[in-house]
Each structure stands twice: as C-alpha cells, then as structure tokens.
Amino acid sequence: MSLSAAAHARRCLTRSSRSLGLGGRVDDGSRRRPQRRHHHPDPFDPKLTRGWKAALAEADIPTTAHDAEVARGLELGLPGASSIDDKTIPTFSRGELPHFAGINTFLKAPYLEDARGVGAYDCAVVGVPFDGGCTYRPGTRFGPQGIRRISALYTPYNYEKGIDLREQMTLCDIGDVFTIPANIEKSFDQISNAVAHIASKGTMPIILGGDHSIGYPTVRGLASVTTKNIGIIHVDRHADIQEKDLDERMHTTPYFHATALPNVNPKNLVQIGIGGWQVPRPAVPNMVERETNIFTMDDIEHLGIEKVAEMALERAWDGCDAVYMSYDIDSIEAAFVPGTGWPEPGGLLPREALKLVGLVAKEGLCGMEVVEVSPPYDHADITSLMALRIVVDALGAMVSHGTLKKSAAVFDKEFVPI
To answer: Is residue 274 a contact partner of residue 236, using CB atoms and an 8 Å limit?
Structure first.
C-alpha cells in the first residue's frame, strides 16, 4: 500500500470512529460520558458483594484465643533467636504455625491426654481406627491419621462464613479409641463406651473413622446416655442396612442395628445419595419393611440440594430431640475421593456435599462421624482433605447459627460402661 493510500485509510477510519461515538465523542462532536456496565455488582460496594462484607466482618472477630496461644507458645517453646523480627515465633514450634511442623492433632487442637477432662470442651474429636468391618478394600484404620495430618493445612478462620473456630468454640482432640483389629464386637463395645463417655459430659463427639461398621456402635453409645429420641441423617452411596454380611455386622449393616435401638426409630433415618451398582439387594427389603427415608442422586438432581435438606431435616427431627449425622466419604463423586474402600461414580460434587452438610448442621447436631477414608488408596491427601472440610463446615454452620450446644442437655442419663 502506498503512503497516500495508507493516510487515506486512516482518515476514513477516524471519521468512521467519530460517527460511531468512539474515541470519547458522539456524532455531534460533544464529549460523551465514560461507559459503565451495570450487569454485574461493583466489587467495592459492600452492599452488593458477600466477599466485601466478609472482609469487613473480620474486624469483629476477637483474637483472644489466638493471642493466648502465641503467649503459651513463647512460654513453653522458648523465645526465638534474636535475629528473628517476628517476636511471636518461638524456638520450638508450638500451636498452629508453621503448618508443616508440630504434632498433628485435629486442627492443631489441644491433645486431651486425660479423658476425664473432656467436659471442659464444646466438642471433642475422637479417632476410630478400625477397618475390621470392611468387605473389600481395607485401609480405613489409617483414616484418623490421614485426616489429622492434612488438617494441619487449615487455619480455624473461614473468610466466607466470617467465623473463627478457635475464638468462638472450644475443641480438643481426645485421641483414638483402642480398637481390637481382629474382633468386631469387642471393638464395637470400645467405641460405644468412648462415644457415650464424651456425650455424657455434655461435649459433642466428632468421630473420624474407620469403616462404616462403626455407625452402629457410635449411635448405640449416644442412645445409651439419653432418654430422648435420636434421628439420623446418613449420607452415602450405599444403603448399609443389611442385618449381616459375610455372617458378621460389617460396614454394610450399621443402620439395621442402629434403628433397632429403642430410642432410634427407623422413620427418623434419612439416607441421602443412595444408588449406583453397589446397593446389595438383601438391604432393600429392610429399607421397605422399616420405612426409612431414601433420597437417590436422581432425587437430588430433581429436587435440588436445598429441598432435599429441608425434607431430610423434617423427617430426621420428627418426634426427636437430637439428630446425628453420619457422612460416608464415598457419597462424593469417585473422581474427587479416590481414597475410599467402595468408590462409586455419580455421587455428589464437593460443593454440593458441603452445601448439604451446612444446611443439615446449622439446625444443630448431637454428634457426627466421617467414615470410609482410606489413605492407602488416596492421592495427594485429597480424600482426607474432603473429610476434614466436611467436619469444619459442619462446625462452622453450627457456630454461625448458634446451635453448637443445642443438644448437650439431651444426654440426661449416667454413663454406664459396657
């Protein structure tokens, strides 16, 4: 193109731009106002985005427990070297930081060596390292260790929810139940005693499994220290309501036996996510006979998470004074949770699972368990991380809605060990 032709093209383009109102002028040559978009919220208007509200809310959360933890760390771990500018850093790691160091209790919570003192806490994490009820891939005995290990990654503060568990509740890690690897029934007795002891002190038990056979002794422990009725919300891909499997009370059987307890009615058992190719036919007649409440993944897709949670809560709480949540990690789409014994594609997506947990937990729980995490089959700890997130989201929902201690008074019977 010649120089004169190029200049002519530029002049034509300039005239065209002006006629279209580009370059800051409209057709008549007057200056136009800057263009604004109104189809999305202004991120700096605190009235329009939750993210900005969350940033402002952080200032309202106290730091009392954090400050006490730092002071304790300096006292017990000795002040850091003089070359370190941050004078909150001790010589020996104590407390939350650094995340890659220290003794891994759950969320770096205090380890309660003397189990008699559990009543001083709102919640107590207890591990149940048992996979004697597993019928296929073992390894869930390492679940509590796996969840605790990855919990070091987290802080107790959640930006979106605007809560800090360290500041707004008290939590301890009471350690693991001493299970008997080769004896299901003796292990069940140990588990029931542990859960009953914690609940009888007015403290909410948070159980890290373990295979799902523990779902029976955990509920039995709770039921043994209350005269009230308990409902169960059970999230799983499997029905787990056979009477026996392989001639024993395996991880396919807990809710047959739990709903046979006098104060745990099967009409208050809600099972969410059931389906796929791993629901044994012997379980189905028990579901029908006992008239449990069953939501498949198709139900969830059809009704939506919010509606399913609403219906589940209505049924679980009907005539009950407390509700227990049992969360089987295999209820989540298998691609996200490879570290489990019976993976089943087609389950909940992680955000759906967390939404469901939050909706259920905000009404208050008397206890909860996360089961079937099998670290030997996991990749990069992602299954353990998902289990951790389920627990902390449940705690966060209860803290933010003021329901954490809602069921503490339900446990009105003295603990009598088995």
So the answer is: yes
